[in-house]
Amino acid sequence: MNKLKSFIISLAAIIIIVMMAATFVENSKGTAFAQTHIYSSLWFVIAWAILAVVSFIYMLKHRLFRRISVWMVHMAFLIILLGALTSWLTSKSGDVYLRQGVPSKELVLKDKTIEQLDFTLKLKDFKVINYPGTDAPMDYVSEITADNEPVNISMNNIGQYQGYRFTQAGYDEDMKGTHLGVYYDPYGIAITYIGYFILFVALLNMLISKRTNMRRFYHLAVDQQAAKTLLLTILLAMPAFLSPVQAQELRKVDNQIADDFGKICVLYNSRICPINTVATTFVTKLSGKPSWNGMTANQIFCGWVFDVANWENAKMIEVKSKEAQEVLGITGKWASFSDFWNQYNEYKLDKPLKEAYRSGNKELQKNLRDADEKFNIIRMLYNGELLRMYPYTDKNGNITWLAPGEKNVHGYLPPKEWYFVRKSMDYLAESIIMNNEDRAKTLISKIYDYQHIRGEKVIPSQTAIYAELTYNVINTLRWPIILYLTVALLAVIASTIRLNDRKRKIQTIISTSLAGIMLLQTTIVIGLRWYISGHLPISNGYETMQFLAWSVLLITLLLRKRFSIILHYGPLLAAFALLVAMITDSNPQLTQLMPVLQSPLLSVHVMVIMFSYALFGLMALIGIQGIIAHIRKDTALESKLAALSQFLLYPAVALIAVGIFIGAIWANVSWGKYWSWDAKETWALITMLIYAAPLHNDIRWMHKPLHIHIYMLIAFLSVLMTYFGVNYFLPGMHSYA
């Protein structure tokens, strides 16, 4: 039994080391090399198979089936491995190339051999869907037929026919041809999904069962001293665990960094503007005003970009409709992004909106549409539509703007520039999260310089950028308009009262001064807007109201001596016009809303994974305290802290396991493959396996509290590698931390 156990531990350690090395091999030799010589190689598959078989034998000899929860967990992993083996044996992948009017059955496999499909494919139409008013592609759509049955394929929607899964991979310049990735896995996916389901049920049962070691560790750990230690650790290290609804607990980005970030330009609403403009509109749209809880628009926008998990729970989204409030299940008018999802990760407004449109209930449509629009604006940020910040010139000489992490242009960019486009925002996020202000400022400066070098022909001048920043500040000031309206209204009231000459003169001075100040501000706003846009700003309701106010004020001042009544009512009318303009701008339409591109599974995946990382971080800090207790020879505290770490280990491992398989389901739904050995997902698997080891009581080395503390501290290096290291050193599809 001991030899069998030692063999399992040794083989598992070897596989973990191989996976670690493989991620670096991929970085130096390329993805294709790593896939062919390691991940998809016969020896690597055999190693996993031997580990699975020997583990199953050990489980039987150890009569693990007497502990149903533990048995189910291990069986689930074996079933998942069986699914992976089935995929390796029975699946195939390749490419299909189609031209309009040319039927094809040819499937080019990965080894470049050609296989004939059992059905005929035809390209009916291919189109590029651009962002409104720009040449930036939002999606690529292939409409094909398989034996005359329609199949629609896009970058975010796989097509399926007879077990084959089609993904959009490329297209011809003349829009008459398309390249499709093809995956065929009729059995492996189903088996793997069964394993995921069993794993979820088993982990849930293990966490709530009274017959697992988790309960024993709980009773050992939770006494007064250990509870105080846990509370102190949480208070010091995990402020994000406190209720995210409390606004003061949100991370506030340094104002200077936020302002510098706001000067970076993006392609937005068919023009190039500083991020500050996007941030101002974004925040105003969500909360009804350009600032919130003492934070500027730049700080709030930085929070949504760099600290998503916390801001998704911030109650800053104004939902005015009672119907929408009821659907979201909120009390009052303030909602968080998380409130838009139910417990099944379904968008709460989806069905009510569809029913409202189906029934023709226009009032309900209107009441729900505002909340739906705000939800989709956040999704637009997630999709990268609000952060197209890297200019590059394609082979036709057209300048296109890329979002952070863009992957589809490496053929046009030198490797270093491509890497910069993919990774600079990741590094900036890490710098801000780690409060490395100097590094953050340097990265912002590099992005700013990159824009002015690569987008020299189209990037606004520094004067234009500062003009727009100034415009955004002045234009978002609300209190002056309210003050103007109040003073103007009082002046009108005063004009109806009998006043002596002295008081009447004072009233005239006040009204004249008010009209002059209002005219000055309105002139500055219109002038700046004219300069920024390049045309006279009278093209929409907001601009016409501004121009109306300016005209009224100008006439008032020109005719004030001859027609004194104008001096009383002119400022009031202008103030109302400015008020209407302000109300219009408090709920702006950023752009035409497009279909949601991201799956909610992605948000759940990231949140679950990050929560597990947080617990691993707690355990590392507890490990440090445990080592200190050992040095001080405080054996009782050392043992209690070890029990506390082992107790936290159960939910932490469960969360990372669930997070990994949710991510796999999301990848399968989005890209047609549930596992691709991407560096980020590989290291997440490594982290899970490393932390799963201490859960096995028959590893005697783990029986000593000091060893537990040392192991938890060292194991946290795998979390750091997964969260930060992959972004710095390794390639992959995951551009987020």
UniProtKB/TrEMBL annotation:
It is found in: Membrane. The chain crosses the membrane at residues 7-25, 37-58, 70-89, 187-208, 229-247, 477-497, 509-532, 544-559, 566-584, 604-629, 641-667, 711-730. GO terms for cellular component: plasma membrane. Keywords: Cytochrome c-type biogenesis, Membrane, Transmembrane, Transmembrane helix. The keyword Zinc-finger does not apply. GO terms for biological process: cytochrome complex assembly. Residues 65-174 form the ResB-like domain. It comes from the Bacteria. One of its GO terms (molecular function) is heme binding. PANTHER family: CYTOCHROME B_B6 PROTEIN-RELATED, HEME EXPORTER PROTEIN C. This is Cytochrome C biogenesis protein. It comes from Segatella copri.
